[in-house]
Structure formats: C-alpha cells, structure tokens
Amino acid sequence: MQVELTFRHIGKSPSLEELIREQANKIERFNDHINSCAVVVERDHASMGTGGEYRVRVDLHVAGKHEIVSEERAARNLLPAAVRDVFQRAGRQLKKLADEHRSEVKAHPAQDTAGVISKLFNDYGFITTIDGREIYFHERSIVSAPFSDLRVGMGVAYTEEDGDEGPQASSVRVVDARGGNRGREEIPTLS
Description:
Residues 112-174 form the CSD domain. The protein is α+β, with helices and mostly antiparallel strands and 191 residues long. 20% of the residues lie in helices and 38% in strands. It has helices spanning 14-27, 79-103; strands at 3-8, 34-43, 53-62, 66-75, 115-120, 124-129, 134-138, 155-163, 166-176.
C-alpha cells in the first residue's frame, strides 16, 4: 500500500514519518483491499501563536467505495502517541468493515433451496417445489451425492425441464442435507 504523507505548518520529522509508515503497514493486515492511505500531520490554525495543538488525520480508501477517516489531536510532544491512536482507531474500523463483508451471505442461484425431496423409490423420486408442485427426478439427475444417500426432507436445487410426462428435474443438487430419517418408499406391488 502506498502512503501519501503530508506535513502542514510543521517541519518534516524522519522519526514521525517512519512511525507513520510502520503503522500503515500494520493496518494493512486488517484489509488487503486498501486502495490508498493519506496521512496529514498539521499544526492547528487556531493555536499557531501558542504552539498548542496538532492534528493527525488518516484517510483510507477501500475497494468497494468505502472510506475510513480517523483523526486525533495532540500536543507536539504527544504526536507519536496520537499517530498510534489514530491508526488503532482506523484499524478497528477496517476490522469492522471486513467482518461486515464476511457476514454478508452471497446468494448463488445454484445453492438456493428450490424444493424438498418428498418421495424416494428404487432409482427415482419426487421433489415438492416451493410453490407446491411435484417434479419427477431420476437417480442419474443427482450431481451432489450418491442416490443412496438421499433422504425425504432434504432441500435441493435443480434445473427444471420438460419431460415426456411433464416437468422433470435435472442437475439435482442437495443444498440442505438435514432431511428426515425416513427411508425409501417401497413400490407397491399389485396383488
């Protein structure tokens, strides 16, 4: 990450500059998508004559159009502590942003439960769709698990297509394996 460092109304300090670069390198571990880091160290205009307060500001731009700004004020002799504090605050904000991104569930159509296995026979079964329809599938249609591992109640995603006798499911993928323990239904025999 490239650090843009600006000193205003204050002479450059090699030790302060080194500390800023160290802190910027540390903060990068919280989020590896930081596009830019601008740091300004300046003397406050209101205290120009008194030698009083200084301000340290960190402005981070993170991929996804996120901006994190952290600012700290301190007396000149406390500038190193202010630099550490401002970067710690920015680090907490970066960590929070990364946690929010990790907790976002990304929906992938192939993983959405589109129905539940409602009946199983020797080499075929039926799926009850979310809208209540019943769709046939054959054991050759299963792509995520052996047919013998299927159970009534498992959530599935599938591709629906027209079959000879109505809708049928192909590319059936188990997406919720918490189905019941009920086994296969036996094909009734005619007596």
